[in-house]
Design goal:
This protein is mainly α. 56% of the residues lie in helices and 0% in strands. Helix 2 packs across helix 5 and helix 7 packs antiparallel against helix 13. The structure holds iron/sulfur cluster (SF4). Iron/sulfur cluster binds next to loops.
């Protein structure tokens, strides 16, 4: 399997999380026990529908926006003469009404008639390009905040099932899984941890593990000697210094061997409900493409992005950006033509803009495939990931 460097959990990101919501383990961790089983066919259909919906929505929305702009220009011209005589307010209202009607008509047509596909395609190309041109002008702070929050809302609509992509059932499992996710994929970690946690379910058990046996269990994740050392060290520290419970404060978590600020943030945000922004490679790349920051530094990115949103949004915003980065807005070839937030993105055009070609670049559940979790949460439209060796 190809290593996904994007999934690597670096330890650079700091925690800016504030105390908040009460402790919660991942509600989806034991999903298969509670959720009704889907047949492969149904699951695959749901995934196809999700992808098709995303592409259609992106196209229709772009078409509507382009139409609004065009209609506004036409209407303004047509009413120019009377506007000169009539009060300014009346002319403006007339132009707005005409524009709205034209936009509605075009959007409806684009969404329903195959013949409008070409127009939609053109609009999909031109509208975001204009958004990009507009973004080239200095954007006021208010406009930036509004656009950022709108992107967050659109992503929430596109990925209502966004979640951490590591399987875990308690804070200890999430801590170990996050440590193991460095330099490998979440999928590989999820395929490795079932046997690991079956053998060493608690910090006490893992601290007493035979180092060589532990290394062999961790071998599929790469860097297994260093990771085994971290697992032994942090388990012993949790046993000896924290009464066998994973601490829920950043300052305590970062004292554990192999645990940096980023790992601590992941655990705090997803196992203890403390809002936090996780700046991994996807998050940083998308934040720069959105124009939320120009920085490459995780600390700065976290501060700058955090200032655009209420704290209560930080954890889910992180999941949404990471989901979008893994599925649509890829590092090398973003699928701009199938992107639901294209009209809001100043980087539209960095990737494939042709909707049909872009749709082929979508990944995971959006391409009808499996997600990264062996136990995805309820509502996830993709298939569960295969167990180790079953790929
Ligand atoms: S896929 Fe393209 S349009 Fe969408 S967020 Fe990425 S760069 Fe922007």
């Amino acid at each position: 399997m190809t290593r996904d460097p994007d999934s690597a959990v670096s330890e650079q990101a700091p925690r800016t999380a504030a105390p908040g919501v009460g402790a919660k383990a991942d509600p989806g961790a034991d999903a298969p026990d509670r959720a009704p089983r889907r047949s492969g066919k149904v699951t695959s259909k749901a995934a196809e529908d999700a992808a098709a919906k995303m592409v259609a929505k992106a196209t229709a929305r772009s078409a509507a926006k382009a139409a609004t702009r065009t209609a506004a220009r036409t209407a303004s011209k047509a009413t120019a003469e009377s506007a000169a005589k009539a009060p300014a307010k009346t002319a403006k209202a007339a132009a707005k009404r005409t524009a709205k009607t034209a936009a509605k008509r075009t959007a409806k047509t684009a969404a329903t008639k195959p013949a409008a596909k070409a127009a939609a395609k053109t609009a999909a190309k031109s509208a975001p390009a204009k958004a990009g041109a507009a973004a080239a002008k200095p954007e006021s702070r208010t406009a930036l905040v509004r656009r950022a929050r709108r992107i967050n809302r659109e992503l929430a609509e596109a990925y209502p099932y966004a979640h951490p992509e590591l399987d875990f059932e308690n804070p200890f499992q999430l801590l170990i899984a996050t440590v193991l996710s460095a330099q490998t994929t979440d999928l590989r970690v999820n395929q490795t941890t079932p046997a690991l946690f079956a053998k060493y379910p608690t910090p006490e058990a893992m601290a007493a593990a035979d180092p060589e046996e532990l290394e062999q269990l961790l071998r599929p994740t790469g860097f297994f000697r260093a990771k085994a050392k971290s697992c032994l060290g942090l388990s012993a520290a949790i046993r000896d210094r924290f009464g066998g419970e994973v601490p829920n404060r950043l300052e305590d978590l970062v004292t554990l061997p192999g645990v940096g600020r980023k790992t601590a943030n992941v655990v705090l945000g997803n196992a203890f409900g403390v809002p936090g922004i996780t700046v991994d490679t996807h998050f940083g790349r998308l934040a720069r493409r959105f124009g939320w920051t120009t920085s490459e530094d995780a600390v700065k990115i976290e501060q700058e992005v955090g200032s655009l949103f209420p704290e209560s949004e930080w954890t889910m915003l992180s999941h949404r950006l990471i989901f979008h980065g893994r599925r649509v807005c890829h590092s090398r070839k973003p699928a701009c033509g199938a992107c639901p937030i294209a009209p809001l993105c100043p980087s539209y055009g960095e990737g494939e803009t042709d909707p049909a070609k872009a749709a082929k670049l979508l990944k995971y559940e959006l391409s009808g495939g499996a997600g990264q979790r062996l136990k995805p949460p309820p509502g996830f439209p993709g298939k569960p990931a295969p167990a180790l060796g079953a790929e």
